[in-house]
Amino acid sequence: MPHIHAVNRQSYKTVLTNGKHQILADEPESLGGTDNGLAPRELLHASLASCAAITMRMYANRKEWEIDEIEVWVEPMLDTETEEMYLRKQIALKGNLDEKQLKRMKQISDKCPIQKLLSNSITIKTEFA
Q1: 10 has a pLDDT exceeding 80
Q2: Residues 65, 69, 75, CA angle at the centre, nearest 5°?
């Protein structure tokens, strides 16, 4: 199974690679970083947004539905009543879909593997290599 390798050699700038592709993570200058990449929390949001978009695209392609563009925004929110943080996922679909198809696309977006992972309790076991 592929894994992500993080290499941090300067400030907070971190190179993330799976051996084939790489992206940069960093913190904004206001937090002491160099702002050369997405912040870790933005990477988490991007994982959810991209997973939802890809899952919907796969489904739409299989059904041969007319969707020209899928846009997904994810942002952290605070429930002022419960004081709990949550992620708000907003979706814009550009194409020719009826209400029934739109409802199904929402259901499909909620089935993406990253959302399933984030919606359950996650156990993280840390080891030193």
Answers
A1: no
A2: 120
Determine the Cα–Cα distance for residues 88 and 75; give it in Å rounded to an integer: 5
Query: Over 60: is that where the pLDDT of 67 sits?
Result: yes
pLDDT, one tens digit per residue, over 88-98 is 999 999 999 99
pLDDT in tens, 39-50: 999 999 999 999
Same-domain check for residues 88 and 104: yes
14-53 burial, b at 16+ Cβ within 10 Å, e below that, comes to: bbbeeeeeeeebbbeeeeebeeebbbeebebbebbbebbb
Query: Is residue 53 located within the same domain as residue 97?
Result: yes
99 shares a domain with 61: yes
Same domain, yes or no: 104 and 51: yes
Domain that holds residue 20: 1-38
In a domain, 124, yes or no: no
3-state secondary structure of 1: coil
Q: Are strands 13-17 and 22-25 parallel, antiparallel or unpaired?
A: antiparallel
Q: Residue range 7-22: average pLDDT?
A: 84
